[in-house]
């Protein structure tokens, strides 16, 4: 997965349009983009969309952002959508591994009710939406086999911190959000799940998005969140390895495979060690990450 596009769960037109966006995954949103009075109807629309989308031969991965684990709305969200077997639930306002475990219990009950395999619903946690959540990043390590990714976000965090802004005039993040982004990347890799970069809110600024997406791929993120279909091609270009990068990765792997007992190998005049091998493996894995279900 290179891209995950947020789509309001109560908007049938946008949901239908999103299917043709080319995004690797859709996040059907039942949380922030849906007004409190529209949530019940959003669940009906989201469930109908999931049932229809799952019948399509080629489709994006189907994810649902529910309300927070301590929000009374979450149980109705899960009752509505788990019967439709989404690939994953996106958990907002997560505080750490305990939040993932709480959601996991709720998922297990509903999987059993709907004759779904236990553990078949993955979890992607949004891990930095409050100051308290920042101190729980280490607890994702080993917390649940369901955990598939950690994403970060700066909007809720900036509100919790009382910040006037989270970006500088040129578009770069201010220091607290650089820290949140970096720690999410590190925590995700420590937990052996996919680190997912946050949204770029100005969907009209393709150049700014391109710069930020390329920086995310460079730093080690595996995917980026999107809020508009126009952002998808730009994100995919940044997170899809070039032919040159793929060829180099294959050469590195071939060199190590030819000398399986060697700690260091020579290639094109350079000495390479195990980190180069692992990096090459990740390049090849990224090349296959855009496949749809």
Kindly list the characteristics that best describe this protein.
eight-stranded parallel β-barrel; globular; alpha/beta; 2 domains; 293 residues
Verbal overview:
It is a single chain. Strand 1, helix 1 (12-19) and strand 2 form a beta-alpha-beta unit. The chain folds into two domains: 3-239, Alpha-Beta Barrel (TIM Barrel), CATH 3.20.20; 243-287, no CATH class. It has eleven helices and ten strands. The chain is α/β, with parallel strands linked by helices and 293 residues long. It has an eight-stranded parallel barrel, surrounded by six helices.
Secondary structure elements and pairings:
Elements (H helix, E strand, L loop, with lengths): L2 E6 L3 H8 L5 E5 L9 H15 L7 E5 L7 H9 L6 E4 L5 H17 L8 E5 L4 H4 L12 E5 L3 H7 L13 H16 L3 E4 L8 H14 L3 E4 L5 H8 L3 H16 L6 E3 L2 E3 L1 H14 L6
Parallel strand pairs: 1-2, 1-8, 2-3, 3-4, 4-5, 5-6, 6-7, 7-8
Antiparallel strand pairs: 9-10
Helix pairs in contact: 1-2, 2-3, 8-9, 10-11
The total of beta strands comes to 10
The H-and-E topology, N to C, reads as: EHEHEHEHEHEHHEHEHHEEH
Category by helix and strand content = alpha/beta
In helices, the fraction of residues equals 40-55%
Largest sheet, order of strands side by side? 1-2-3-4-5-6-7-8
Q: How many structural domains does the protein architecture include?
A: 2
Judging from the principal axes of the Cα atoms, what is the shape? Answer: globular
Report the sheet with the most strands, covering strand number, pairing sense and barrel closure. Answer: 8 strands, parallel, barrel
Uncertain runs: none
CATH architecture of the largest domain: Alpha-Beta Barrel
* Total of helices: 11
- What CATH calls the topology of the largest domain is TIM Barrel
CATH superfamily caption of the largest domain: Phosphoenolpyruvate-binding domains
Beta-strand proportion: 15-25%
Whole-number mean pLDDT: 94
The N- to C-terminal Cα distance equals 11 Å
CATH class of the largest domain: Alpha Beta
Measured on Cα atoms, how large is the radius of gyration?
20 Å
